[in-house]
Amino acid sequence: MPTLRRMPAPVVAPRPLRRRGVDGVHDALALRGSGATSTLVLAVLAAVASVVAALVVLTGDVWSYPPAPQLLVDAAVGLGFPVIAAVIAIADVTAGARTLGRVMLVSGVAAAFTALCTALALVLPPDATSTAVLVQLQALLWVPGFFPLITLVPMLYPDGLLPGRVWRLAASGATWGVVLLSVGMCLYPEPFAGPVPVEKPVTSEALALAFTLPGALLVVPAVLAGLAALVVRFRSSHGVARRQVGVLVVPAALLLVVTLAQGAIPSPWDVLAQAVATLLLPLAIGVAVTRHGLYDLDTAVRRALVAASLAVCLAGLYVSVLAVLRGLLGTDTTASAVLAAGTTGVVLQPLAKRLSAGVDRLYYGDRANPYAVLALLGQDLAAAGPDVSNVPQVVCHRVVSSLRLGGAEVELDVQDERRAVASAGSTVPVDAPAFDLRHRGEVVGRLRVAPRPGERGLDQRDAEILHHVADQAAPALAALQLHQQLQRSRESLVTTREVERRRLRRELHDGLGATLAGMRLQVESARRLVVDPTAQRLLDSTGDGIAQAVAEVRHICEGLRPPGVDDLGLGRAIELAADRVRAPGLHVTVEVGSLPDVGPAAEAAAYRITAEALANVVRHSGAGRVSVTLGAEDAVLVLTVEDDGVGLGPDVLRGVGLTSMHRRAEELGGRLVVSTPADGRGTRVRAVLPISEVSA
Amino acid sequence: MTTTTAPVPSTEASTGASRPSARRRAAVAVAAFLACAIPVTFTMTITAMLVTGTHADHRFHQLTGQGLVLTALWLGALLPLARAGWRGRRPSTAAGYRHLALLGTGVAACAVAPGGGAPVLLAVATVTGAILWAALPLRPRLRGTVSVDPVLLPLALLVGAVLMPYAVDQLALQNAATTGYHSHNPHLYDMAWVVTTIAVLALVGAVVREARGLLTWVAAGCTVIGAAGLVTGESAIWSGAVLSLGLVSFLAPRLARSRTAAEPTA
Predict the structure, then answer these.
(1) What are the boundaries of each domain within chain B?
(2) Cβ B6–A375 below 8 Å, yes or no?
């Protein structure tokens, strides 16, 4: 294992988060002020009211009365939504998200107190005034305790903003509908179906209908609009945002369906189904918060998870041990309770430590286990195969997946130039912590990482393990660096070679060739002037020799560069090459797009690949039609030669021609792919060649 | 389900695969036949009783502890062992824990409530199970990695908190049943046995990384017991709680947070 190095400057010590998260309830409350405090108080009150209501009903022998099962739904809302609202309140979220939190808080508090009123009305004396008041309150509160969940919450989720201006109408309709419906239900003269029917103190059927009907007319379309808003937002979002919305779509639809089917489902399954569907909504939002990073609450949720997990574990352990001890010790409940409490106390510290480590692993991956990360990195590198170009991606992926970091990027230094060669996760900021990739004392590149969502920097342990990862990956990345340097040298050599050939050809053609042609003309003129037969023979021979030299110079020029490319341009030269393979049974089309100056190396490679591909078509394909397409896209030259011949069978071996085409593309840093077209017939040769910067 | 951690042996039967000899296969087959004889017989007779309505007042027990849940746990523990042994593979860690948990809790419950022929049943189950283990060419690796799951452990202890008092009550009732049907047909002991097994499986699954799959058995067991309780008129609160825990056990392993952003972007 590599030795540990000092942490470099870019890695910051862990600091409490102020901008994008929370660090403890106290800090958060200090930040958010009295609004968060009042939200927390209301949330606690709602939770207590819900639990008290459930306990009252479960222990009060009133379960058989119709309002009692309904209480489950109210208690579920009263317990679940204030918790989410409290979490939003203590987080540093946008004003819109706080609006959503307030809607959930109002709804949760109303539902909790509906449950409490229902429970108390069931157990208090039916003739007491307070019972009648509770019944009236219950009738007033149940509407705002439920309908916002299927109207306003889906409209505002997740950022508290409506999907568009047109949705304001729906939101206003939902708000006014809930208000009107609440008043109407409150005034409706329907007795409370407890052990003895209890009448409301204030009723008016006419007024109730006057409020209820318009209220219902506003709420019903608002319910559909709520679901539609969720679907619209889901369809228009991408990535993590889409997942954040997606988790709520099904629970919201389920709640709507269950609510609409209340008359069709037999009791008590109707209420149970509605309670479960209602509970799924805050659960889904909880999943979005914890799993998909909604509101960037990782730190707060992590701490809350440890606390909740520990509390539940201790309670469960205590009850289990107590039950076993009571079974073993008989009726000695005091001794059993003491022993159970003692057992629970003994495991408290180790359990807290283990749970904390478990939560840490859940959020930070294998940060606490460097060996695991390095072992997995080693496995990944071994599985990546001999192609060293995969190494940066493997390293980035391992860093992000094993350490749960926001993102990772590998930069490589190649010939005084630093460029990113791979990344994973979210975009890595410019000022992100970076770790040198050192091999044999030289920095070959850098591993840059984005901190986890909601964190400003890296922890000391993150830094240590990232140093190890950098040390482990550096040799493989050094090999990649060498490979890239070699490739660049090769490209440079090829380009230089073609530039030099073009220059040589020009010199030969315009210099030596022209000189020889002039000399030949002079010799022919001299031959016509002399009368001596011997001199004539000598001049004839000299003229023939010069003509042969001119032909040889022309031949050398053609060998140096593809014919016609320098004189006519690449496009025209390829058209001429295509003309040469045209035959009665072979229809050849050439399509050349607008081409920039692609450089002599790319010109030569494109021409030679085209010529070889056309020759293969003539020799092997049996095609009746072949098309050549040439164009430039984003600093690359794209050449396609496609025929409708017999195609490449699975057993076709790569011959000299194919190998030559691949080599010509690769030596320029391009690539060549030979494939079968989508219709399954023929062969397609596609070459992508970088346009050389050297064009002189 | 939680995080990717140190490379560990697969929980599924995968290592040491080599075709066992004919003699070894025969031994595995005979041992498996002996071990599975009782649970298979139970399954058939209990299914027949459920279909024909025999002892309809014991339908809850027939569906759960005395019957289908018990035999599912029993056969679910034996068959993976036998299958892996037949193929010459090492059985999974979870399969080993499943069998040991079933027999261990059965023996413990039997020690508390030895009436109604439970010791004989447990003796046969233990001996035939031990023969099957002896016949295996490769035995399960039981030395797992202790890795507390902060979501599953509270759930497991909640399962224990709901099921253990019930188990204690059932054992007490079994001990109290000195005459009548339950004195020679220990349904109450069976119920305690099954729910204790489920509680132990939940705990092991939450603590041992290679045994996380046991939570699926916990989920299925709790769901069936809870639903059967609601359908057959057992305590609605207890049955509802067990059913809820079963459903949560199905969901909890899937709800554990996992970062999904580690996809290549370049």
Answers:
(1) 22-255
(2) yes
